[in-house]
Amino acid sequence: MKITDIRPRRKGFSAVYIDGEFAMNLDTQTLLEQRIDIGRELDEEDLHELIKSSNERRAKEKALCLISYRAHSKKELRDKISRTCDREAAEKAVERMEELGLVNDRDYASRCAQTLIFTKHMSKRGAAMELRRRGIESDLIDEALDEIEVDEREQIAAVIERKYPKIEDEKIRRRATAALQRLGYGWDDIKAVLNEY
């Protein structure tokens, strides 16, 4: 197989033409590092290695881009990267980010649990479900939630006062109850706080 043309594309990609036909888009930086130019002969193994190198570079760049916006759990990062790259490259990128200390599930679980409970007013049970959905392991969830001291009935009262000031109305009361249950609060706690109103 002979590379007959390489054309620049947007976002750091180059279109590679093999034997006169478009073959694939590859990362331009990988092409430069591997000294791939027009007229070079490639066999199947060389082509496979080139694609693998390109995917790994794209996965690492995607990981750094995602982390620059906000913290991610390993699972979240892996899932987002694998939308644009293969699963193996995504896994390697996540491992590299973990080696560099840019991804830490223990730290992420702790900070995320604080945010879910004190900013979004979730119960500990609701925060645990959300952390589990984000791919945090059960022992890390338990560890993060054990650090937090919170009175859930006070949290319920804060949600009611902020979002449902006319709680006397039966329709609003039902809506508030459903919302609090979605936040993970138990019926007994909700009922106790509603009875105070």
Q: Cα distance, first to last residue?
A: 78 Å
Q: Mind telling me the CATH class of the largest domain?
A: Mainly Alpha
Say which CATH homologous superfamily of the largest domain is assigned: Winged helix-like DNA-binding domain superfamily/Winged helix DNA-binding domain
CATH topology of the largest domain: Arc Repressor Mutant, subunit A
Order of strands across the widest beta sheet?
1-2-3
Number of structural units classed as domains = 3
Portion in helices: 55-70%
Strand content: 5-15%
User: What is the 3D shape?
Assistant: elongated
The CATH level-2 architecture of the largest domain is identified as: Orthogonal Bundle
The SSE string, one letter per element, is: EEEHHHHHHHHHH
Annotate the secondary structure layout:
Elements: E1 3-8, E2 13-18, E3 21-27, H1 28-33, H2 44-69, H3 74-81, H4 87-99, H5 105-118, H6 124-133, H7 138-146, H8 152-163, H9 170-182, H10 187-196
Antiparallel strand pairs: 1-2, 2-3
Quick gist of this model?
This protein is mainly α.
Descriptors:
3 domains, mainly alpha, 197 residues, 3-stranded antiparallel sheet, Arc Repressor Mutant, subunit A
Describe this structure in words.
The structure is a single chain. This protein is mainly alpha-helical and 197 residues long. The chain has three domains: 3-99, Winged helix-like DNA-binding domain superfamily/Winged helix DNA-binding domain (Arc Repressor Mutant, subunit A, Orthogonal Bundle), CATH 1.10.10; 105-146; 152-196. 61% of the residues lie in helices and 10% in strands. It has helices at 28-33, 44-69, 74-81, 87-99, 105-118, 124-133, 138-146, 152-163, 170-182, 187-196, and strands spanning 3-8, 13-18, 21-27. A three-stranded antiparallel sheet has the order 1-2-3. Strand 2 and strand 3 (21-27) form a beta hairpin. Helix 5 (105-118) packs across helix 7. The longest helix has 26 residues, at 44-69. The radius of gyration is 25 Å and the shape is elongated. The model has no long low-confidence stretch (mean pLDDT 86).
